[in-house]
Automatic annotation (TrEMBL):
This is Lipopolysaccharide export system ATP-binding protein LptB. Residues 11-258 form the ABC transporter domain. The gene is lptB_5. One of its GO terms (molecular function) is ATP binding. SUPFAM superfamilies: P-loop containing nucleoside triphosphate hydrolases. The keyword Oxidoreductase does not apply. Pfam families: ABC_tran, BCA_ABC_TP_C. The keyword rRNA processing does not apply. Keywords: ATP-binding, Nucleotide-binding, Transport. Gene3D superfamilies: P-loop containing nucleotide triphosphate hydrolases.
Amino acid sequence: MPEPEHSAPILEVQDLGIHFGGLHAVRDVTASLPAGQITAIIGPNGAGKSTFFNLISGFYQPTSGRIRFEGEDITRLKTHQVVARGIARTFQTTTIYKELSVLEGVMIGHRVRTRAGLFDALLRTGRERHDEAGSRLGAMRALERVGLAPQAGRPAGALTQEGQKRVGIAMALASDPALLLLDEPAAGMNPEETVNLMSLIRELVTGGLTVALVEHKMSLVMGLADQILVLHHGQKIAQGTPAEVSRDPAVIEAYLGGHAHGGQMGQRTEGGAHA
């Protein structure tokens, strides 16, 4: 595994910020994500983690700052344009089409790479047929990467929680991203499923992908991440290896009060909300 400090960044943000009325959800964040590695974004509830993801993926337009991906300024691009550039994401709640087959659902994730429009679809033009075949092939490749190719014909809703999480990841992979953003991928999963997910994420990175994830399960974060970016009240307070971050005084202070220290950083308090 390459040392984090020697890896060139695939994504850089400079003075990134967004406010909603008088609330600064993210403020003046300058950070980078090393290519070919796993970066975990952590922080107490309300730290701005999911908002940070929404800015990178084009769901929100920043109030200030810049976002560069593979050297290109993508700050003002819309979501579908960001996906087309090579950034895909999953969400806290598994978003799949449970009534469709696993293959059909993942094919939807590939359509962003196709050129056929509504006219082509209505008339079943040659372009539409060509793109549909390409989407089917791309979806099967994505399913193979997550270990679900044998389940391609099953209804997605019939899979286990872990299986449905893998379908969601496959939908993102079908767009052929260079950077995959995973928003709480282990939410709702038991310890065995979490271990399986960790193995899958590591396999994807070994295969050439860069991953950034927001996660509350610190056993996953500390066992998987190459780098950790810590947000608190929308601001970056630390970034480094798991060992460096775990002993950073600012990080320890951020988790005191409402969060137990000693390996439990980032766990929700009773009734706590997602960040």
